[in-house]
Design goal:
The chain is mainly alpha-helical and about 140 residues long. The protein folds into two domains: about 40 residues; about 80 residues, Cytochrome c-like domain (Cytochrome Bc1 Complex, Chain D, domain 2, Orthogonal Bundle), CATH 1.10.760. It has five helices and two strands; from the N terminus they run ββααααα. A hairpin with a 2-residue loop joins strand 1 and strand 2. Helix 2 packs across helix 5, helix 3 crosses helix 4 and helix 3 crosses helix 5. It is elongated. It starts with a strand and ends in a 6-residue tail after the last helix.
């Protein structure tokens, strides 16, 4: 089955009895573009929802077990800072309140405090890791800052 075409304003249009005009053609193109954009937005929305569905439970699980995660991360810390709270030239970090602990780690990371070893150690820590370490060391007991 072949479709006859009629020439109108340099555009080949089907001759099906419908009166085509440039406005009709552009309106149809606009509608098709809206449909494509709508599908793209819906797909993007579904992808974002899928990603959030994966991330949110992980964050909730991390906050529920910050101290356990902190204990896992603390291996590097306790090579210098003693778990007993003894000073021996390196300040104890057990028993600090969590907000102060995180603030001090951030100040080393931002190089506001001078200590090349601590600046190096904190350079790779994110907010979640700092919070987890703070929860772990706060749980260990009282210490001095």
């Amino acid at each position: 089955m072949s479709v006859r075409t009629c020439m109108s304003a340099e555009i080949a249009l089907p001759c099906d009895g419908f009166q085509y005009s440039e406005n009709n053609i552009f309106q149809n193109a606009d509608i098709q573009m809206l449909a494509v954009n709508s599908i793209a937005l819906e797909t993007l929305f579904r992808v974002l929802v899928s990603i959030l569905t994966l991330i949110v439970p992980l964050q909730v699980a991390a906050s529920a077990s910050d101290a356990e995660y902190g204990e896992y991360l603390a291996a590097e810390c306790v090579t210098c800072h003693q778990l007993s709270g003894a000073e021996d030239g390196i300040p104890p970090i057990i028993g600090w309140d969590e907000a102060s602990f995180v603030a001090v780690l951030k100040s080393y990371k931002q190089k506001e405090r001078e200590n090349p070893a601590m600046q190096l150690v904190t350079s790779n820590l994110g907010e979640a890791e700092m919070t987890a370490l703070a929860a772990y060391f706060a749980k260990l007991g009282s210490g001095t800052k």
